[in-house]
Design a protein that fits this description.
2 domains, 6 helices, five-stranded parallel sheet, rod-shaped, Rossmann fold
Length: about 190
């Protein structure tokens, strides 16, 4: 499943175009932004599955700011950070802020594709789990309604059995009268539970 909607944010036009050139033919929908401000504008209009953003960009917001904005807008959006200045501190900061992953520049497109495929697979599994949860909710609701209906029918039938028992114990009535009353109780019960 490669139908992810991806926002690519990088101040370097060559990097943006290269990522677009590599990802678009693979079935990804790509939107480009040259800085954090433009990225926020795009995110304000559209929901993205993935944001790939440069960590170090001039102006505000930088890559961490884009990451935080994307995570705040939707827990649905995964963010991959790119940097030419890899360090443990920035990687830790990015992961704490909610980045899905962290890649060094120049971009290794094989690694990027693996990460995007993993995100697509995760999103597909999440959707399947959500669909199953919704189906279970519908099934549970239908089962609860059926149980309630069966309980009502059982109560009606229990009441009829009680009335039939009382009618059969009435020895002061002729057998024909008791039989007519039993038939009347049964008829009323079947009408009520139908």
């Amino acid at each position: 499943m490669r139908n992810l909607n991806i926002l690519v944010v990088d101040d370097d036009p060559v990097t943006r175009k290269l990522i677009e050139k590599k990802l678009a033919p693979a079935g990804f929908s790509i939107t480009l932004a040259e800085n954090g401000r433009r990225a926020l504008e795009h995110m304000g209009r559209e929901l993205f599955d993935v944001v790939i953003t440069d960590l170090m960009m001039p102006g505000e917001p930088d890559g961490i700011g884009v990451l935080k904005a994307a995570r705040k807008k939707s827990g649905y959006t995964e963010v991959l950070l790119l940097t030419g200045h890899a360090s443990v501190d920035t990687a830790v900061e990015a992961m704490k802020a909610g980045a899905a992953d962290y890649l060094q520049k120049p971009v290794n497109f094989h690694e990027l594709m693996i990460r995007l495929d993993r995100i697509a697979e995760y999103k597909n599994l999440s959707k399947t789990a959500l669909d199953l949860r919704e189906a279970m909710d519908v099934t549970e609701c239908a089962a609860a309604e059926t149980i309630q209906e069966l309980e009502l029918r059982a109560a009606v039938l229990q009441d009829v059995l009680h009335k039939i028992g009382e009618t059969l114990r009435q020895t002061d009535l002729a057998p024909d009268q008791r039989l007519a009353m039993v038939e009347s109780h049964l008829s009323a019960a079947f009408t009520e539970v139908s």
